[in-house]
Design a protein that fits this description.
376 residues; mainly alpha; 3-stranded antiparallel beta sheet
Length: 376
Amino acid sequence: MREREREGMRMEVELPDDFRCPISLEVMTDPVILPSGHTFDRASIQRWLDSGNRTCPVTNLPQPPSPSLIPNHALRSLISSFLAQRPTTIDAAAGNRDALLLPPISFPSDAPTLAAVLRLAQRGGPNSRRLVADSGAASVLLRHAAAPDRPDLQDLSLRALLHLTLDGDDARLGLVAEGALDPVVAALRGGPAAALAATLLTSLAVVDVNKATIGAHPAAIPLLAALLRYGDGRERREAATALYELCKFAENRRRTVRAGALLPLVRLTREGSERAVRILGLLAKCREGKEEMRKLIGFINVLSEVLRAGSPRGIEHALLVLNYLCSDSREMAFTAIKEGILDLCSVLAGDMNPNIGKNAMELVLRLEKEQFGGYS
């Protein structure tokens, strides 16, 4: 049996390096190619770009704004074929090895034990993460995640929980069903764990039903909005990413507006955050969002600056917001004309990006209607 186990572990180690994402070091499930020519798992490289990075993580060479992520179908097929052909003894041997590496865990735990759980969840692959989840460790991790009096244990627990969510939608649903929201939301209240807690909420919110569950938690969106207002750079970025994922669910847009997120989002937009503009594009789809945006002094000016100097994706969503605001408001349309947006859109209507061109042309037609004929 030991010989089979050694052979299984040797084959596990020999998994081709090209199958692993250079960022997460995990086997890629959705490989995409960056313009630099290097391949990454889509979730990992998207988070890299959403954090404001504009370089290739491998070469450190600059990349174009809003770089295209081209699916690497050939590599995805190779990975699927390789994994399908691996002998089942590999998984059995890896599971036996991981069981030996998983220490007994109970609450309260200590840093060495939680660090061992994190290493297993982080580096062991899907089988190891399932072993951790099935061991009952998640309940201990969640209790430590809610305990700010030991920030070292809180950090280790949140990191381990984040890696457990990488095991797919069932893992994300399972953690929420196990009561993850209260401790994770509690960690948003400030301190060194706040940014990590926001990242964990983003991962949990990938599942649509979790978007609704998280949004319905009375403190989740208000605390994310507070991080936008008062957090440091990383906390604001992670809070914005979490809100963007949550606001894909319509009811959460109203909750986000009511939580007072608009002003800090406008501030982030002024600072050049593409993610903030995209959230504004979602909030403008609800009546409450449009009404609050129309009350903000200088808001149209902020959007005009995005049109002049923003990234392609930022421009696309700024145009979307302007279309929503000007669709049934003469005052907003007139303000947009005064800010020179009609002239800007006349140029952007010919942009090679079809979404920019389409949104710009729609806005040109709206503003010309106001300029020359008004609303009926």
